[in-house]
Structures are given as C-alpha cells and as structure tokens.
Amino acid sequence: MKRPVIGISCMAGRDEYGFEMMGVSQAYLRAIAAAGGTPLMLPVDDDRDALRGLYDLCDGILISGGEDVSPACYGEEPHERLGGVDRQRDDAEIALARWAHDEKKPLLGICRGAQLINVAFGGTLYQDIPSQVDTDLCHTLSFDRREWGLMAHTIRIAPDSRLAQALGVEEMSINSMHHQAVKDVAPGLRAVAWATDGVVEAIEGLGDGFVCAVQCHPEELQAAADTRWRAFFRAFAERCAEHRQASVVAI
Question: What is the pLDDT of residues 14-34, one digit of tens each?
C-alpha cells in the first residue's frame, strides 16, 4: 500500500530578503514522514480551485500552528491583546477543515490548528488567556524560553478519548506556546484534555470520523523529548491510510 498523503497547511511570511514565502516548520514534515505518511505542504491563499485540487490529492489534513485566529471568524471584536492575524489563511483553513469533516477525511490540528478547527465548526476562543482566564500557569513558557521541548505544565486526558488510547496515558507533561485557547467548544466536538487551570488542551470529533486537535506542539516532542507522541502521529497516519484504501475500493 502506498504511503498516505497528508496535507499540512502553510503559514505566510517574508524571508530575510523581503521575499514573500509560505511554509511550515520542518518538525511537522519529519513527524508525518516518521509516522509513515507523505507530507504535502498546502499553500493557503484565495485560489480555492487550486487549494481544492491539492486537497483532493490528500488522504488526511493537518492544520498547523501559527498566528492568532481572527475573532471576526467567530463574531467577536478584537481584544486589545490580540496578536497578528491572517484572514486569508483563516478562510483557507476553515475551508480545508470543513471539506475534511464533510468527507470524513482524517483531520488533525496542532496549536492554532486546534483553535481554527473549533472556530470552523462554530466554537469560540479566548483571545488572550492571561487577561481572560483566572490562571497562574504560563501557557507561553516554551515559546518565551525558545525551548520547544520544554515541558511547561501537565494535562489531564479523558480516558475514553482517542488521544488517551494513542498515548497510553491519562496525564502527562507537555510543551506550551499559545496565548489563545478554546472557549466554547463547537457543536460536534468535545473537550478531551485540560490543563490544571481548566484550559482546554485537546478536542475531538464525535462519531466515527477522525477529528483530533491538541493545543501543545507534539511535532517538537515526538523525536526525542517525549517519544510517546510518535504513537499519536502513527494513529493519525493509519487512519489516513485507511481512508485512502476505502477511497480506492469505492472507485
């Protein structure tokens, strides 16, 4: 069986010379390849036909991390501590998430990706945890120290979740690089992991389809810092392979 193709949404920016660029951290590519998938970077712009063409090549979709999700996507005014946003990316990733959901194509979100998936299906976000949540935890600790493998705090995981089944634990330490988080969980999703302050750290879809999203950055942990996350990526890649095979049979 061919390796499943897993599309990874890109973020936009400029390089040191000022050229406009799109890409993702190599850690995503390595994690997907190590799990048995073939990573395919998905540029996110306004050309929906091009994006749909790439999406159709994929057996699963990974919504990656990055900047804040625009509050306009969930009907709120910007908070004074809202960071940079990219509405072009928001809209493209919302389309990817909804296509995947409608066609039961496996969908994985990481950090911003978790927030985006929640918003795509009708949920809302805390725009800034420090000013909107009563907490003593620093949810940006790994980012602040520029140590991507730094374990910032622990999380509790629902024992009946796909996440717990893949990792084999119901409590673990994670890295943390976010100041936004899920507030109201979208219809069709449920929270399955929480920090000690109650902040949602993972969400999953209800039903048989594979929708899973985590607030931490396991792609930065799976190689060495916490190899249990390799099983998480393998579980995703395996579901993508199953979707590929089912699609071939259907044809």
Answer: 988 999 999 999 999 999 999
Q: What is the pLDDT of residue 251?
A: 55
Angstrom distance (rounded) from CA 139 to CA 2: 39
Beta bridge partners of 202: 193, 214
Tell me the per-residue pLDDT of 35-68, one tens digit each, with 9 for 90 and over.
999 999 999 989 999 999 999 999 999 999 999 9
61: tokens are: 């979709």
Q: What are phi and psi of 131, to 5 degrees?
A: -100, -10
pLDDT (tens digit per residue) in 86-107:
999 999 999 999 999 999 999 9
Cα–Cα distances (Å) from 8 to 3, 23, 173, 179, 202, in that order, read: 15, 9, 25, 22, 19
Going along the chain from its start, the domains and CATH numbers come out as 5-250 (3.40.50.880)
Q: What strand order describes the sheet that includes 60-63? A: 38-42, 5-9, 60-63, 107-110, 211-214, 200-205, 189-195, 153-157, 171-174
Give the whole-angstrom CA distance, residue 52 versus residue 95.
Answer: 9
Residue positions annotated with a catalytic role: 111, 217, 219
Predicted model pTM: 0.96
